[in-house]
Inverse folding.
């Protein structure tokens, strides 16, 4: 009697185990289907993507769509667009991480009058909808003659970004204050203390900030849409949008091919820095 | 001695300001001055080519009384935010709990479910989304294979178009799932053990322990995502462009159109200030309501 019951329970558990895994698998398929569909589409002809007999796999794995897509539009190739994205995201990230760590150190380890007020200002910038400052910023950059160049997308990063300042401050808080005392007794200046002691210790937080910064800047669309007006200066995200509009559309495969390429840097970050991504989200609620 | 102290104090002040100098410059140039300018512009007519002309409250009056599209996009955006965010949070909590057991496969599934979160904001996905939901696209094709109606034009019907954008938002539940996962891990296991001893079942445990312990995390996510949802831009701009009949026109998109397509910088500034007002009001109301349902451990 007991045996039968035990066997029944075990069978139940196996069933629920299989059911659970199946459910999770179906979920996983749904979750990555759009991305995989895009990837498959990058090898397909229009008819294969939208025709009556759509198949999941392409009929052949030739890279001709990548070649035709790479040619771009307006005489500018996607090589230029990707290079622009790398310049904007790369320089912007360097600026954001460097300036944010300096500012984070100032807020967490220096005592100065007005610290509270400036810190409140930083909170304000985090909560302010960007739409409020969007138009005046555009006017300012227009006055400077920067509209049409990448400068409006890069230069502001060098004035620190509140999210990253917070992230790094949280990390600095975990570094014992004894170090500050020791440095003071040694008579080393704050600048030297920062560069030689604190900076090396905050490396993990800086890596996390760099990863998020690069991802956000790589995917940014609003900034390029506002400030870039010549195809030569387009970043990949803006170029894909324009490509989508302009070819309206004879070559979906090429569009999918370039879309796929534009996601590769993000996927590489995901593969190699997953630990930092998860930590960044779990500890500070940074949106992914 | 006294003098020495003031010298040190002054030096500390100077050092502090040198360190936060990047922030101060950025704050003045890209936040403080723009806020003032934007507030001023909201009372003017300004097309960037000629200088602003003071028109008093007329932008605000037009916005509230005669601009139908303004109210449409306001309602659409509220609907989008208040439908997609709760659904997304519900989804993330359920999936986070489903993947709670420390098994290898659960880690892998979590990673897979997280992928849309990092890709979903990109233009590439937005462009793909248009084609997925096109009348001859993959979604209808799959529905057809399953024997369901396969000729729904998702993007051109006023009752379905907004849902394609909501689905896109929910699809990116991965990062909130990770936040819930770390929240769940922080609930002390003794609580569950005690409940089990008292004979409480799984469902009672969920409503009496899990949910109350998670309310701070839920609250934080709710506030942050509702605000972000209200400011959403890309999906509406790229996927539907606001069509059909403005049924997917987000507030930010309309604001952008006013400013940069119709050169009504003054009117757009007034819209931005109303947006700030709504976001602030939403935050205050949520914080007010939090006393009633958010559970903070008394230390």
């Amino acid at each position: 009697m007991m045996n039968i019951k035990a066997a029944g329970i075990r069978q139940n558990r196996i069933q629920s185990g299989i059911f659970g895994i199946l459910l999770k698998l179906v979920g996983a398929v749904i979750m990555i289907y759009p991305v995989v569909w895009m990837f498959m589409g990058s090898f397909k002809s229009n008819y294969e993507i939208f025709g009556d007999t759509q198949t999941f796999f392409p009929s052949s794995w030739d890279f001709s769509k990548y070649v035709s897509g790479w040619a771009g539009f307006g005489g500018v190739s996607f090589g230029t667009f990707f290079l622009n994205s790398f310049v904007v995201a790369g320089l912007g990230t360097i600026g954001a991480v460097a300036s944010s760590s300096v500012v984070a150190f100032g807020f967490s380890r220096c005592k100065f009058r007005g610290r509270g007020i400036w810190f409140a200002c930083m909170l304000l910038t985090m909560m302010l909808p960007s739409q409020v400052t969007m138009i005046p910023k555009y006017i300012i950059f227009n006055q400077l003659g920067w509209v049409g160049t990448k400068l409006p997308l890069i230069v502001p990063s060098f004035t620190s970004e509140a999210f990253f300042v917070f992230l790094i401050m949280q990390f600095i808080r975990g570094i014992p204050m004894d170090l500050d005392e020791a440095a003071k007794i040694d008579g080393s200046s704050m600048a030297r203390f920062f560069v030689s002691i604190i900076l090396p210790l905050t490396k993990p937080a800086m890596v996390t900030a760099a990863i998020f910064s690069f991802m956000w800047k790589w995917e940014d669309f609003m900034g390029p849409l506002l400030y870039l007006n010549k195809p030569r200066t387009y970043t990949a995200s803006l170029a894909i949008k324009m490509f989508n509009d302009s070819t309206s559309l004879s070559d979906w495969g090429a569009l999918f091919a370039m879309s796929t390429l534009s996601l590769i840097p993000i996927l590489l970050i995901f593969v190699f820095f997953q630990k930092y991504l998860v930590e960044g989200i779990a500890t500070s609620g940074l949106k992914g | 001695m006294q003098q020495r102290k003031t010298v040190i104090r002054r030096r500390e002040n100077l050092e502090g300001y040198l360190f936060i100098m990047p922030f101060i410059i950025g704050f003045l140039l890209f936040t403080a001055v723009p806020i003032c300018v934007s507030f001023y512009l909201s009372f003017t007519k300004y097309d960037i080519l000629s200088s602003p002309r003071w028109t008093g409250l007329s932008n605000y009056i037009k916005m509230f009384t005669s601009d139908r599209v303004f109210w449409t996009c306001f309602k659409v955006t509220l609907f989008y935010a208040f439908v997609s965010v709760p659904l997304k949070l519900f989804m993330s909590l359920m999936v986070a709990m489903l993947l709670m057991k420390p098994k290898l496969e659960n880690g892998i599934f979590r990673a897979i479910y997280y992928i849309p979160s990092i890709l979903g904001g990109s233009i590439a996905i937005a462009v793909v989304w248009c084609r997925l939901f096109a009348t001859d696209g993959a979604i209808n094709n799959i529905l057809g294979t399953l024997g369901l109606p396969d000729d729904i034009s998702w993007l051109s019907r006023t009752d379905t178009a907004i849902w394609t954008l909501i689905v896109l938002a929910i699809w990116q539940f991965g990062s909130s799932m990770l936040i819930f996962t770390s929240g769940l891990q922080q609930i002390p296991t003794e609580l569950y053990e005690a409940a089990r001893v008292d004979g409480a079942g799984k469902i009672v445990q969920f409503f009496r322990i899990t949910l109350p312990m998670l309310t701070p995390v839920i609250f934080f996510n709710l506030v942050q995502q509702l605000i972000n949802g209200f400011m959403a831009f890309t999906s509406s701009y790229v996927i539907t462009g606001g069509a059909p009949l403005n049924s997917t026109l987000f507030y930010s998109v309309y604001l952008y159109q006013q400013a940069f397509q119709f050169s009504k910088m003054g009117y757009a500034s007034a819209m931005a200030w109303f947006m700030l007002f709504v976001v602030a009001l939403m935050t205050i109301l949520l914080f007010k309501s939090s006393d009633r349902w958010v559970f903070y451990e008394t230390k």
